[in-house]
Amino acid sequence: MRNLVSVGTGLALLAALGINVALAADPAKEETGKEIAYNSSKGNCLACHAMPTMPDAEQPGNSGPPLIAMSARFPDKKVMRAKIWDATATNPNTIMPPFGKHKALTEEQIDKVVDFVYGL
């Protein structure tokens, strides 16, 4: 019992200090496509693209086309995925980073971003 109190006290102290402690029994939260797209160290789509249908998209960029009506613009979802994977394959002068080719995102992360963006 004494050890449990010590562990509980230690976790409470770490939490009070703002240190996030993950317990082994807690499964890791899986990132969504939106979270990856909005994350400035991952997809960072908002750095270049506006997402007019997303009111929480603060300070969107304007150097890339707005991400609206994506399923109408890309009837074949695979074409849009290929652009995210490596836009230089169809446009060598693009400023869009090749997220897959340069391994900035994993295959799974790209699939999640594609699913998210395709729904916009």
UniProtKB/TrEMBL annotation:
InterPro entries xref list: Cyt_c-like_dom (IPR009056), Cyt_c-like_dom_sf (IPR036909), Thiosulf_SoxX (IPR030999)
SUPFAM superfamilies reported for this sequence: Cytochrome c (SSF46626)
Gene Ontology MF: a single term: electron transfer activity
Start and end residues of each Cytochrome c domain: 28-120
Gene3D superfamilies listed in its UniProt record: Cytochrome c-like domain (1.10.760.10)
Entry keywords, A to Z: Heme, Iron, Metal-binding, Signal
Membrane-spanning intervals of the chain: none
Protein name per Swiss-Prot or TrEMBL: Sulfur oxidation c-type cytochrome SoxX
Source species: Parasulfuritortus cantonensis
Highest classification ranks of the organism: Bacteria, Pseudomonadati, Pseudomonadota, Betaproteobacteria, Nitrosomonadales
Gene assigned in the entry: soxX
